[in-house]
Every structure is written in structure tokens, then in C-alpha cells.
Amino acid sequence: MKSALVLTALLLAPLPALHAADKPAAKPNIVLILADDLGYGDVGCYGSIGLKTPNMDRLAQAGLRFTDAHSTSATCTPARYSLLTGEYAWRQKGTGILPGDAALIIKSGRTTLPSVLQKAGYRTGVVGKWHLGLGNGDINWNGEIKPGPQEVGFDDEFIMAATGDRVPCVFVENRHIVGLDPNDPIRVNYKTNFPGEPTGRANPELLKMRPSHGHNQSIVNGIPRIGYMTGGKAALWKDEDLSDTFLGKAVAFIERNRSQPFFLYYATHEPHVPRVPNPRFVGKSGLGPRGDAILQLDASVGTILETLDRLKLTENTLIIFSSDNGPVLDDGYQDQARELNGDHRPAGPLRGTKYTVFEGGTRVPFIVTWPARVKPGVSDALVSQVDLLASLASLTGQKFDASTAPDTRNYLSAFLGESTTARQDLAEQGGPLAVRDGAWKFIPTNKGPRLSEGAEAEVGNAPKPQLFDLANDLGETKNLADTQPERVKKMAAQLESTRNAASPKD
Ligand code: NG6
Ligand code: CA
Predict the structure, then answer these.
(1) Do residues 209 and 299 both lie within one domain?
(2) pLDDT by residue (tens digit) across 379-437?
(3) How many whole angstroms separate alpha carbon 299 and alpha carbon 272?
(4) What is the DSSP letter of 237?
(5) Residues with CB under 5 A from ligand 2 (ion)
(6) pTM beyond cutoff 0.85
(7) Residue 8 resides in a domain
(8) Atom 10 of ligand 1 has which residue's CA nearest to it?
(9) Which residues span the domain enclosing 163?
């Protein structure tokens, strides 16, 4: 009797995992994990000196680790704009680092990575940092907040509007601020303060974290921010819980959509400033809050992997793990990132950091896993986040209007490890614009300031052209421009032609 029951149970048990392994579906689930300011040298499998990241390493062991993958820009807004639209951000004005009350900079209805996947039948969701603007200017934060992610291809959203260090410090879920008390409306202003509200500048005695540059306006949870806000007390996030809240929403999205193809854009906040990890990570890295925030991020990656395992989705889920730009130590708060850094090298062997046009600005960790199709290994192919749109469109059999996504190219076979080469050319945006021709890198003469404001990163501006051979000089230490005038000429022309390529008209 007992064995008959067991047999019946076995016969009735569903076998989806077996089918997935036999024949890879054309529509794997896609989880894009995008860290914020995580450096090439911050990840164990990229040779991190001071930090252990077992979960990111586990991803790399199961998948393909790219050594020459790039975001398009060394700061957040333009990098994310390119990732979602397939267009270099510098083609459009107003795509620099946005304030928290900026209007949405992606035109509603335009071709985007999520809209392409939506057409392919995916349920699409964004959880985490947005920083691409909301509304049409002059948002009423207390009403329906649109246009936003839902107008550019996401079915579900749970986001922070801009950054952790910019007001408003609240979550927006499907067009509404979460937990808002209608009797305590939120107002936001990036020019003037609201009467009676303390600021970091005027009330340093109220601060639990002090700024090193800027960050001296409204105080939320004892942390001075950029921009002014008032009201919405019940809706304010707790910085210590930010990461767990996003993680919980990401896990819930996966659980909800387990039985249909889904695309999750999980845009974590770590290790962007202000770095306020949950107490369970405090002091664990030995590198201070920045290192602790990276451990927290690594643990979140682990939870995503466990969730996929638990739901038996691992085999047919394509995970892409990357960062929006290079690392930075002091990014405007006195959080001891510099003092406690020790021998750790956030950008690894690369020159430059966030804000800079040297490789450390845009060459980022990039790992792809998809057990059903991607073989583990390392790829040296030159790839860019801007190419995900065309490549994932190809994977899912979608056509799109290339005139509105002019810079994205289909390198699906490189992303899946079926080809060892991808781009020959790539534009890199730091302060100035640089161009790659294979392993050669060219930065034209630029008059701008040598150091970025605040973080004092070496932007890459110089009164002379700069030419580097990354194959033999990954750290961009020897400027070969004087000895190779022909190559300088050729690459200057290449940069001009990229710059002048048609940009989509709105
Ligand atoms: C800078 C901020 C920095 C960070 C950055 C945006 C100051 C002094 N610096 O202006 O702290 O917020 O903008 O980072 O305010 S990003 O990753 O979103 O591009
Ligand atoms: Ca960033």
C-alpha cells in the first residue's frame, strides 16, 4: 500500500527541469543584476585583493566571465540610459547624472531592452535604482508618478527615483510612493529648502554621517543628502534595510513569475554612497562600510541564486551580473573608504575609477550564466552593455527599429560564449570620449579639468592626445601618441565617425 502511494506520487510529479535540460528554450528567464559603482577589482574571481565574494565567484564558476566588458559611461545615468535604449547616451543632451526630481529621459514608447522582451512574451520588472528620471518635470510625488518605468517597457516597478544620496528617500512601486500618509505629503526641491527643515550645512550636530564633498542639504535618517525634501515621514526608507527591501522585492518578482518567461532588472544600490549596510554586515570586511556593502551585495546575489534553485529555475535562467560604472573610494561622505582600503585595489590592474575615461571607469565585472546553454569559461571578447538590447532581441527572436537604437549590435554568440570575438570598436565615456580599436585606446586632446569635482578622480582630460596599447599596457601607463602618429590619425577619424553617426530624432 505504502509503496503504491509512493509510486503514484512519483508518476504525478511534474518534470519541467528535465525538459529544460534536454532542449534549451529560446526564451530563458533573464535576470540582469546591475551593481552600482562596483569595480573590476572588487570581485573575488577578478582577482580582488581585499574582499571575498563567494557568490559572485560561484556565478563565474558556473558561467562565462568577461575580462573586457564595458558599461558605456563612467557614471550611472548615461550608463543605464545606454543599457536600456541601445543608444550611446552622449548622443542626447540631458543624460548626465540626474537630480532626483528630473523628468524621465527615455521617451515613452521608444524601443528599449524591456519593451523588446515584453513583445517576446516576457513579464518584465525593475527593482532597485532607477536614476533615469520620472514624470514630465514638476512631479506631484503624492499622486500618480508617470511616465516612468511602465511607459518604457516594464510591467512592474519597485524603485528608488535616483540614488541613495539624493532625495526623495522613498520607494516608488507601480507609480505610487510606498507607505505615504496623505496627511503628510512629500515635497521635493533641488533649488531651495523648505521653511524650518534642517540641512547638513546648517545642522551638522544632527548628522550620524558627515559629508566630505557636497551632500549638505536635507537630512534623512541622520544622513545629509543632495536636494531638499519635506513631509512623507512614514514613507522614508531606512538605509540599513534598503538592500533587504530590494532583495525581497526581487525574490517576490521571481516567485510570482516562475511559470512564465520573465525579465528582472535588479539594480542594486551597493556599493554606492551613502554606504549604510545592514548591521549583520557591519565590520565584516575589514575595509569599512564600502567593503561591508560589497559583502551585502554578494549575499544578495547568493539569495537570488538560491531562489532560482529552490524554484527549479536555474537551468533555464540567463543571469547577467555587472556594474554600471567603475569604483570610487571617497564619493562625498566621510565613511573611511580611503583610510581602511589597505592594499585593496577596487579597479584591479586598471587605471582610473568612476568618472574617468581610463579603463577603470567603464571596464566592469561582467558574468553570464545559463546552465542550459552557456559553458563555463573566460571570454576576452570586447563587449558592451549597449549590445544587450540587440543580442537579447536576437535570442528571443524579436525585430526592432534600429534607427531608434543606433548603437546596439547583436553579439549574442559572444555573450553566450559561442564566439570568442565581438566588438572591434567601442566608445568609452568618462569626462571626455575615448575610442577603442581592438586593444588600442585613443583619448583625444581635451581642455576640461584634470580632476573630477568632489571625488577628485583623474578624468582623462589632457592637453595632448593619448594612445595606449592595452594588450601590453593594461594600466595605460605609456602614452604612445608621439610614436604612432598614423594610428592617432586613424583613431581620431574613427572617433569622429562614431560621434557623427545618426542619432535618433525624438
Ligand atoms: C556626484 C555625487 C556622488 C554621486 C554621483 C552619482 C557629490 C559631491 N558627488 O555628483 O556622491 O552621487 O554624483 O553617482 O555630490 S552615480 O553612480 O549615480 O553616477
Ligand atoms: Ca553608479
Answers:
(1) no
(2) 999 999 999 999 999 999 999 988 889 999 999 999 999 999 999 999 999 989 999 99
(3) 16
(4) P
(5) 36-37, 76, 324-325
(6) yes
(7) no
(8) 97
(9) 26-182+236-423
